[in-house]
Automatic annotation (TrEMBL):
<dbReference type="InterPro" id="IPR016208">
    <property type="entry name" value="Ald_Oxase/xanthine_DH-like"/>
</dbReference>
<feature type="domain" description="Aldehyde oxidase/xanthine dehydrogenase second molybdopterin binding">
    <location>
        <begin position="15"/>
        <end position="110"/>
    </location>
</feature>
<dbReference type="GO" id="GO:0016491">
    <property type="term" value="F:oxidoreductase activity"/>
</dbReference>
<keyword id="KW-0500">Molybdenum</keyword>
<protein>
    <recommendedName>
        <fullName>Aldehyde oxidase/xanthine dehydrogenase second molybdopterin binding domain-containing protein</fullName>
    </recommendedName>
</protein>
<dbReference type="GO" id="GO:0005506">
    <property type="term" value="F:iron ion binding"/>
</dbReference>
<dbReference type="Pfam" id="PF20256">
    <property type="entry name" value="MoCoBD_2"/>
</dbReference>
<dbReference type="InterPro" id="IPR046867">
    <property type="entry name" value="AldOxase/xan_DH_MoCoBD2"/>
</dbReference>
<dbReference type="InterPro" id="IPR037165">
    <property type="entry name" value="AldOxase/xan_DH_Mopterin-bd_sf"/>
</dbReference>
Length: 189
């Protein structure tokens, strides 16, 4: 429903239809991510990811594992590298090439990527007892963001600056390095 109250204000309201005809279900998953982090440069490696995903009864496990891997890596881009910047004056997009805009590349994929589909979890409401497999694993990539946050917390604790800090995505290399509060005067050879 769209309502126009005057020439300067437009209000849009979404009213969902009846959901009893649509199959609704929950998808579950668990992820553990191991990262290696350099506090001086902000560079990191995702050494290992263990991911268990509930896709219902898989129609084709090889395809489903590929979908989970793709969604997870897409999420890594969202949470870690894909920073969009605009010029505040003109509104022009500043990150219009891979020199500035960093989608996930081959070296961003976890070195040891272990995907397992939950067995014996059919979905009685899904097509052939299956569940969505492409989108939910994208959310599981936040585990890499949280792992990097723990690394930054440890670095800050080492320099006695153990205070709260927000880590909003994307957690770029520059942002991670800055959050570590590393001071060159603390370097020891």
């Amino acid at each position: 429903m769209l309502e126009i109250q005057d020439s300067s204000e437009i209000i849009s309201v979404y009213e969902p239809g009846k959901a009893e005809d649509e199959p609704q279900y929950n998808s579950y998953g668990v992820t553990c991510t191991e990262v290696e982090f350099d506090v001086l440069t902000g560079q990191y490696l995702i050494n290992r990811v263990d991911l268990l995903y509930d896709c219902g009864e898989s129609m084709n496990p090889m395809v489903d594992v590929g979908q989970v891997e793709g969604a997870f890596v897409m999420g890594l881009g969202y949470w870690l590298t894909e920073q969009v910047k605009f010029d505040p004056q003109s509104g022009r997009l500043l990150t219009d090439s891979t020199w500035e805009y960093k989608p996930p590349m081959a070296k961003d994929i976890p070195i040891d990527f272990r995907i397992q589909l939950l067995k014996n979890a059919p979905n009685p409401k899904g097509v052939l007892r299956s569940k969505a497999v492409g989108e939910p694993p994208l959310c599981m990539s936040t585990s890499a963001l949280f792992a990097l946050k723990r690394c930054v917390e440890a670095a800050r604790k080492d320099v006695q600056k153990d205070t709260f800090f927000p880590l909003d995505g994307p957690a770029t290399v520059d942002k991670l390095c800055e959050l570590c509060l590393t001071d060159p005067s603390q370097f020891v050879i």
